[in-house]
Amino acid sequence: MSAAANTRDGGMAELSALDRPVVMVGLMGAGKSSIGRRLARCLGVNFVDSDVEIEDAAGCSINEIFEKYGETYFRDGERRVMQRLLKAAPGVLAAGGGAFINNQTRELIRSHAISVWLRADIDTLCDRTKGRKHRPLLNTGEARATLQSLIDKRYPVYAKADLTVDTANDGP
After folding, report:
1. CA 69 from centre of chain
2. Whole-model pTM?
3. Inter-axis angle of helices 122-129 and 143-158, nearest 10
């Protein structure tokens, strides 16, 4: 992909020559799916949500995978699905919140794609994830504390992404 100069279209013309996938990484609620869909539409490429692909491959929900087999099993399956998706035609891919944290998955992304960390503050993440029952890591009754713990652990790793975009409520 060529670098975008300061253009009226925000560099979208330059991005239309996409030669590898763009992978959105970040915590749940950061906007990976919603921003990813919009970016894919602007670029005229496919959008894929890795969580949907994982559920299709497993034949059950991510919550069910976590409940029946645990997080380690889920992360192994997630890595295999990401490996398959990264071999597909260039497009925009929303990775699960923990995908980039896994060393093997992160190296796959870094070697085959452009990684974009969608960063949001704790208040924004809490607002966006409130009441969402399909997020297994937040089904603890202490969603804010869990999100803060995830921020503390994951943000230093997400910072290794190729690009960072702030998606706080007052952002893009």
Report:
1. 22
2. 0.83
3. 120
